[in-house]
Design a protein that fits this description.
Helix content: 40-55%
Number of helices: 9
Order of helices and strands: HEEEHEEEHHEEEHHHHH
Radius of gyration: 19 Å
Amino acid sequence: MSASMETEKQTASAWFRSLRDEIVATFEGLEDTHAEGPFADQNAGRFEVTETKRASADGSDAGGGLMSVMRGGRVFEKVGVNVSTVYGELGERAQAAMAARKGFPEMKTDPRFWASGISLVAHMQNPHCPAVHMNTRMFWTPHGWWFGGGSDLNPCLEYDEDTAHFHAVQKAHCDKHGDAQYPRLKAWADEYFYIPHRNRARGVGGIFLDDHNTGDWAKDFAFIQDIGRAFLPAFLPLIEKRRVQAFGDAEKDAQLVHRGLYAEYNLVYDRGTKFGLETGHDANAVLMSLPPLAKWV
């Protein structure tokens, strides 16, 4: 394995793009097949795809990606599926944060980095359908590399059987990599997606990991792929079941209030949001996770 890991970077970047393509096609398929229940009389939603570009301080190319956002669909009120590959040099604040968090004091003398990943957030039309978040990513510096990501479910109206299904699929994919992985990643998600100022979790949990590097890149990449592969079978059956349910003003109000939690978390705590804005990535792409409507009472 070369120090620059060019082959590994290209392999990971291509995987994140292929996962994005599969999810986008599947979500548009959900829109097409929604033939009964609330919003079935509306036009099927489609993703609006925008190429994002990032420039270094000197104006040179620093990567970019695709921002894919669907608004006002039959099933999805707003869903974003972003994929990006960015590179360059970290700014002083990011260097300091990386040096402290990762124990890389060398970042201050060689601040080069490369990062690629997919990030998804879905806010649903029907409040019986849970919102969801998923991302997987690879990060490289000359001083070390690692993977991160996961997915978590954020229903405003909780169904125990939906939560059980979501976690069971996550567990099955994690178990391929050892029985200890799912309990570890579930506990990590419970801690990471907690909102301290509200003294509550953001949703019903999922799996999460960061700084993942066992020293075996192929093994770690296979793990992060299975985390990505778990998403659709964990999420899709819930939407297919709940999208036909009737709802009233009380359920919609509960959804809007719950979305306020999501907005607060992403703006105050989310590490990916902070990194994206800190490194000059397209603000619209970074903030695509925010709900289209929310309510505070």
